Amino acid sequence: MQQYTNFFTSQRQKIDTSCAPLLNSYRDEASETFQRLGFPVYRSENYQHTDITGLLTPDFGFYLDYAGPKINPHKVFHCHVPNLSSYMHFVVNGHFYEEETSKPLPAGVFSGSLNAFARQYPDLFSAYYNRQAEQKEDGLSAFNTMFVQDGYVLYVPENTIIEKPIQLTNIFSGTIDSIVNRRILIIIEAGAQAKLLVCDHTTDENPVFAATQISEIYVGEKAEFDFYELEESSEKTIRLTNNFVQQAASSNVMVNNITLSNGLTRNNYQIDLTGRKAETHLYGMAIADKQQKIDNYTLINHLVPGCRSHELFKYVLDEEAMGAFSGRIIVSQEAQKTVAYQSNRNLLGSKHCRMYSKPQLEIYADDVKCSHGMTTGQLDETALFYMRSRGIPKEEAVLLLQFAFTNDVIQGIRMEGLRDRLKLLVEKRFRGELVTCRGCAY
User: Fold this and answer.
1) Which of 158, 200, 309, 439 makes a 20 to 30 Å CA pair with 261?
2) DSSP for 341-409?
3) At 194, which helix (H) or strand (E)?
4) Each residue of 49-84: pLDDT tens digit?
């Protein structure tokens, strides 16, 4: 879009001022890519239900003159998960919140600002930053690379195990319509292990907040990494993400996205299994009502023999909500002995809500075990009748059936504290109590 190209040219010096030179060095090429591609085309094969150009046409404010946060995130929002005993970090309006004191991490681990990482580890930054995003030739990623001024990096060196999870809370705060470009870079070297929970929240309900977020995840040989995302934002929030994962041999990755409250969300996931015997678990759950929209696109590439993938996305929609799922698994000719499963299941509570589903398998190898499927329907009337005949009120029976429908996604979470917390949050959401992100402040 020309308005953003002109804005980038006129504000380039201001964009660069607070950033590491290495971060700035990627902007020119990204600008050329964005001018050539623009935003992904609405109604194209992979963007049937989300019009990014239309969403980002209005004039949004940019946080270019960053002089530190105007809020203390610890006081504004208490987003810790009880019993998780995690390392806590915050990103406020796209900028990492620097703190003087924090819990010590294992030796060699970096968990902090994207700019700080670029300055302290220039060789690692150059080897990993923007590599996957650039290769995909995507206009949204290029747009983010043009404007991003900070973000979060987790670097775990070889054979290092982080026993406690890390929790990163993204906070939107402000009084005007604004756009924030966030970046997450994860490098888990061979034999290392880590878990990261990323939460999205807003402190103000009236402004329209738009976020682009690019996550690049590298998981080395025999390494393990869990990546959880929990969205509890306002009904005026726009969330547009690209998530890229590259797995080496015998690595194990869990990616789990849960949307409890939002405005419009579009998540892209691309997972490349590049090493033998790599295993990935990709889960998602969305609960939406009113006029909320949730659109998930996934692509899992089996590129070598002996890899496994398990994919499950579930939606519970009501009122005039819209859900979309497009999942694609590609098994290359060389990827013999692949085991891949994909499932999308949807529960509709109103005749006015809409669900679009497109599960896909492309198999070019002949010695594989692969399956995919989709179901969309309403609550089981027989089960509902049985429960009511046992004296359970209708509202409670509906709640129990909805919770049972989502339970396997929650049970797949490998953080016990987060799993227990989500059971409570999902129950509150179904009861209509979790209407904004403040609903879980405690």
Assistant:
1) 309
2) EEEEEEEE--TT-EEEEEEEEEE--SS-EEEEEEEEE---HHHHHHHHHTT--HHHHHHHHHHHHHHHH
3) strand 193-202
4) 999 999 999 889 998 876 666 667 776 665 556 667
